[in-house]
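User: Fold this, then the next.

Assistant: Folding the first:
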Amino acid sequence: MTSLHRVFVSYHHKDQYYKDLLCEAGERFSLFVDWSVETNDIDESLPDQQIRRIIRDDYLRDSTVTIVLVGLETRNRKHVDWEIYSSMIDGKVNKKSGVFVVMLPQTGSSQYVAAHGEQEKAVLYPSETNWISIDRRDEYEKRYPFAPARVIDNLLCNTAKISVVPWHVLFEDLNRIKFLIDATYDDREACQYDLGRAMQRSNF
């Protein structure tokens, strides 16, 4: 049996219910190990570079996949942005993680992005036959109005390999969770993320 991947779940506290459901499924069915910790106690007056290093090398320490749960207010939360950014950088102790995004039911989103090739399409969306490519920011923002701006940046980046999946698709078959974690882990080193956006310094 292969070892389970250590997963950091980034989310807004108002979506705690879904984080708990995901991690309970992960533990009960041996899908992954929850490696999440709160990052809310970081000194916000520190320089961006130091905040990123602290999160990457202390809070995300030894995790290799970050799952971003997107609810109605996720895009407004600075700590979520910090966690996504820090997941994407190579730290002195830990290298970058793979990242994928889960759209929670309250967003009403049924759209998806399959960044890991034909096998992901077959496993997660077996009945889908009409795949299209998107290369415009306004189209992504229309499809995912609640997604953090940094997520949109990287959906537009062909080398980032970030999948987006609706919550119900994952929970129709829990093997899909394991598959997507494995695929995200396998592709993480090849990811070249867009890190050009400055860190979000306030909630809005």
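Now the next one, as you asked:
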Amino acid sequence: MLHVAAVALVICASLSLTGRPIFSTVLVVVLIALLAVIGNAKYESLREPFVFTDLTLFSQAFAHPRLYLPFLGIDKALAIVVGVAAAATGFVLETPIGMLGRCVSGVLAVSCVPLCLVLARRLSPTLHPEADQLRFGFLASFVTYLINGLGRAEKHAFARAVDSGPFANGRPETRPDVIVIQSESYFDARRMSESILSGPYVQFDRARRESFEQGQLTVPAWGANTMRSEFALLTGLPSTALRYARFYPYLYVRRVCASIAGYFSRGGYLTAALHPYYADFFGRRRAFRFMQFDRFLSIENFDDAPRVGPYIGDAGVTDAIIGLLQECDDRPVFAFAITMENHGPLHLEPVAAGESDTRHSLGDDARWRDLTAYLRHIENADKMIGRLTDYLRKRKRPAVLCFYGDHVPALSSVFDALASEPIHSDYLIWRNFGNDPGTRRDVPVETLGCAIQRAMMLEDRIEADPQTELQQTPA
């Protein structure tokens, strides 16, 4: 019934506006086909069906086509063009009906609205898109998510969830600098195969051995949807607590929102977010302001930073972090950096012959080109870890560094070829004080903020005993 009501709503609304019955009917078919084509492309790349919040990303697909359109493929893109052209041709050729028919269609369209609302609210989705689409069908599931997800009740539920999060109250008891780096698509690829060499992970291994805590990380995203892991760390909330907002949490951030940045701000910290991409992407400019960041350094602040491929490299982000620490030497800093270098689509990047030799032993076959490109960027992330830990060792001020991957990369063809299906990223929390054995804990990403708080607590021993020296790396 919901499926029929939704189709009738669109047909009647279109007929009321255009007066063209054939065009309106074809329009519904084209729209559903468009959603299906895009949904299939998304599932092939990201292992997740198309959901209602993806509608908000259409404008970003046109503003940033390189991030989205290559995943469609030529065949799907041509199918979309043909469908749109057919609908447009029908509009031009068809003779419109009279005003009476259009008015009747408008009344029917309006009457379908409350019917859709009632039917959508009678369903009980699990909020696992694949299971719900198998149960209700694609269109009915999509409409249910759309109606329920954008309702007032969901906005209130989201506000209650963030207001009761772990960072809603309190402030730091100690004041080391805290640097958190969300590294794009970072994970330890050596888990997939012994063919992956350790060269790209030298500094990562070193920092893990010296870390306060390290391990595998459960994240609410696969291949993309960076903002889900990002929001989980910043608020300490699991995706299950967000209900419909789990798919695109920044869409719901419309007022002051409790976050770890607010927690540090109450302790006198300068709170800064760094992301070498466009500030309005995923609505970060608005969201970070409400999440109580004092500064947001976006692509405009990286004009002189070197690019690696199409994006600002990790080295430029490292320079910005060090510059921020030097600028605020007399005030503690909480810096949250979101890297961009390793963002796909990797299959568009050139790979030279022999480039794989120091990264994996699978050779230069075309199947492994994306893997080679990926590990090339992992090497730069590794240098970032090395530069920051070396800098913080030499610096007199206590500091905590958290480094983690937002999700595994969208390398489905590589994973299939290696008969592997990685789902966890990796993390480490490193300090330049204490005597840490590299304790392993496999945790969900929403717990990292509390782990950082634990890592900070031992800092008061340094203040109590001026003879205590910062941790030195063994030769």
